[in-house]
From TrEMBL:
Organism ancestry: Bacteria, Bacillati, Actinomycetota, Actinomycetes, Kitasatosporales
Sequence ranges assigned to domain Flavin reductase like in this UniProt record: 8-155
Protein name: Flavin reductase family protein
Enzyme Commission code(s) on record: 1.5.1.-
Native species: Streptomyces viridiviolaceus
InterPro entries assigned to the protein according to its UniProt record, in alphabetical order: Flavin_Rdtase-like_dom, NADH-dep_flavin_reductase, Split_barrel_FMN-bd
Record keywords, A-Z: Oxidoreductase
Length: 162
């Protein structure tokens, strides 16, 4: 795997917060594996760790919300990346509203969309949720550069790593 590190170490993707609601529960986590995966129709995929509480809630959800953050919003990234919903109600600490299909939308996100889950894809220790965007928005004016992987490297995952 060391040889692959030479490739992977050069990547610096945008980070996003993914939120889900199902069965009376809400969850959200910081995600580094996400990308547009189709042009026509437009599709987006987010990859959730199977050990993460957000995955457990998302697998029953019909929609997920995906949020972009700016570098200045690192405290929000630390909350959703460094805390686990098994111990902390993250939504009590942020401004949010219910979006399409009940998806929790973070009101202070730089940009966001809600996507209908159209497919799951096994990716190893992560599962891909392929989304069909159905609602979206952005904050104005723009708050600056987006939060990227190198900005979030020091956030220690809040979920247990077995």
């Amino acid at each position: 795997m060391a040889d692959m590190d030479a490739f992977l170490g050069r990547l610096d993707p945008d980070m996003c917060v993914v939120t889900a609601a199902a069965g009376g529960e809400r969850a959200g986590c910081l995600v580094g594996f996400a990308s547009q995966c189709s042009l026509e129709p437009v599709r987006f995929v987010v990859w959730l760790s199977e050990v993460n509480r957000t995955y457990r809630v998302a697998r029953s959800a019909q929609v997920l919300a995906v949020h972009l953050l700016t570098r200045q919003q690192r405290p929000l990234a630390e909350l959703f990346g460094g805390e686990t919903g098994d111990r902390v109600d993250k939504f009590r600490q942020v401004r949010w509203r219910e979006g399409h299909g009940g998806a929790p939308v973070l009101e202070d996100a730089e940009a966001w969309f809600v996507g209908q889950v159209v497919r799951h894809a096994d990716g190893g220790d992560h599962v891909g949720f392929v989304l069909d965007p159905v609602e979206w928005g952005e904050r104005e004016p723009s708050g600056g550069p987006l939060l990227r992987l190198h900005d979030a490297r020091t956030i220690h995952a809040g979920h247990p790593v077995d």
